[in-house]
Amino acid sequence: MHALRSCGVIMAEHVQGAVHGQPGELLACADAPHARSEGAELDDELKVGDKVGPFVVVGAPGKSLGEVVLHWPERKILLVGDAVVGDPPGKCKLLPDKVVDDPPRFRESARGLLTLDFDALLVGDGVPILQSAKERLQELIQTF
Question: How far apart are the first and last CA of the chain?
């Protein structure tokens, strides 16, 4: 288990120039070899199934190389970055295919998130959904 003092998690499309912000900060990436090749300074690599504090690392491939989400099962919270977008408020959508590495795999990953037990969806883009989030994601999944 990774200690959770403060944690920076970076994704492949955000790695250029990523360096530590504060002393004692843990900076980790799901695709550490790629991130390091782009110049990021990392402490560790996140692997599917790892625990980071109370969160479990869950694979969500398709959007970009090494895409992951973080699930806090006890609190029923899913932290998705931009694997799902909270837009319009109270609903969710996926990013447009033109900015996604593998659109079919991306949709399959979104579908796979429904196997997790969550009520809140914390997003990197848009508005978080703080209750009934799994139902909102199910509504999205039914459109494809």
Answer: 36
Whole-angstrom Cα distance, residue 117 to residue 4? 22
pLDDT one-digit tens code per residue, 105-125: 999 999 999 999 999 999 999
Domains of the chain with CATH codes: 7-141 (3.60.15.10)
Which pair of structure tokens corresponds to residue 3? 């200690």
Contacts of 100 (CB under 8 A, 6+ apart): 62, 63, 64, 94, 106
Q: Are 59 and 75 in contact (CB under 8 A)?
A: no
**Measured between alpha carbons, how far is residue 97 from residues 64, 80, 89, 103 in Å?**
11, 17, 21, 6
Q: What is the pTM of this model?
A: 0.78
For 81, phi then psi, to 5°, come to 60, -120
| Cβ atoms < 10 Å from Cβ of 38 | 17
Pairing mode of beta strands 26-29, 44-45: parallel
Q: Which DSSP symbol is given to 95?
A: P
